[in-house]
Amino acid sequence: MKCLKPSIRILYINDDEDDALLFKATMADAGFEDVITFVPKEGGEVLDHLTGLLPDLPDVVVLDSKLPGMERDEVWRKICANEALNHLPVVLVTGSEGYVDMIKERCPDLQLDRVLIKPVSIESLTQALQPFSKCVEAIQG
Hints:
The chain is an alpha/beta fold. The chain has helices at 17-29, 45-53, 74-81, 97-106, 122-129; strands at residues 2-7, 10-13, 35-38, 60-64, 90-94, 112-117, 134-139. It has a single domain (18-119, 127-133), classed as Response regulator (Rossmann fold). It is built from five helices and seven strands. A five-stranded parallel β-sheet has the order 3-2-4-5-6, with helices on both faces.
């Protein structure tokens, strides 16, 4: 059975507005319609944005690993320390595999579900999101 219409609410966080627009358009082309983008000017805005969504959090967050005005792991440490958010599934998009080990070491409770190394293909992204998606329209085959 092939899923034609996945049901998943995705929050994409990236400080580059062009990347955010491209992500949203690419995901729409792949059948993901409920995509919200957040383009912070400073990495510190991420935690405020996420807590502002409570209790209506997205199904998954796709987060760029490098945000302005913060150390590379600062966003992760803050999400990890927040009991209302540390269960939230996160797909990390990064340019460095070593960064992932550092995050897991410093924040073992964080639900870091998938890690994608740039450049990211639409196939690897949709595969990473699959576990969080329900299919609302499918065809045999």
